[in-house]
Design goal:
220 residues; alpha/beta; Glutaredoxin; 35% helix; transmembrane; DUF3105 domain-containing protein
């Protein structure tokens, strides 16, 4: 059994590393396209033609109240799973999420960088939820969390792709872990539930946009 777990873990790490390499290649292509597009745009302006392209993925007319229907159901492993609907629309109006930290729902079109990024200031939930959509695990903590635990968790996040960490004094417990549609409280950095949650939900089956980048977003 232990051998099978190690094989599964190694396969997941290899898959994540392959996705990171793919992301970097895509970013290089995107930069080239942006530069090329800028040159074309300037030429069009000189010629007197201005074209406005409206993103079809960004619905600015949506009323973003974040009141998604559903509730948490706690499993035997202590993980709370959201049973109900979680919106995935890109919106510009502020979303009022029913839980803190949110586990999903309508969100901003920009995501927070989640390639092992540790933030020292609270995040905009709308950007962090977009990171969850990409398969990230979000570690949050309050000022009641022991400093040693915060530092140990930060070290773990920094070496784990598709994770991010930030303070959140609005949450109920000192240390919480969140993935899209899933959440749990842990007692500290050495709680076995931390590794179990990372193993299951970092780019796990719950990911709405499997393989989507965790770089190229907002740095804060």
């Amino acid at each position: 059994m232990g051998s099978a777990d190690r094989t599964s873990s190694a396969a997941r790490k290899a898959r994540i590393e392959e996705m990171r390499r793919t992301e970097k290649a895509r970013e290089r292509r995107n930069r080239i396209l942006v530069i090329t597009g800028s040159v074309v745009a300037v030429a069009a302006l000189v010629a007197g033609g201005v074209f406005v392209v409206k993103s079809q993925s960004d619905d600015k007319s949506t009323a973003a109240d974040g009141k998604t229907a559903g509730k948490f159901v706690t499993g035997a492993d202590g993980v709370k799973t959201w049973k109900g609907t979680l919106g995935r629309t890109h919106v510009t109006k502020t979303v009022d999420y029913p839980v803190e930290p949110p586990v999903g729902g309508d969100h901003d079109r920009a995501w927070m960088n989640c390639d092992g990024d540790v933030y020292t200031e609270p995040l905009n939930n709308m950007n962090a939820v977009h990171s969850l959509e990409h398969g990230a695990v979000w570690v949050t903590y309050t000022d009641k969390a022991p400093k040693a635990d915060v530092e140990a968790l930060a070290a773990k996040v920094k070496k784990t792709p598709y994770t991010l960490m930030s303070p959140d004094d609005g949450q109920a417990d000192p240390i919480m872990l969140t993935a899209w549609g899933h959440q749990r409280t842990v007692t500290g950095a050495d709680d076995p539930a931390v590794d179990a949650f990372f193993e299951k939900f970092v780019q796990g089956e719950q990911t709405p946009e499997m393989g989507a980048t965790c770089t190229g977003g907002l740095p804060q």
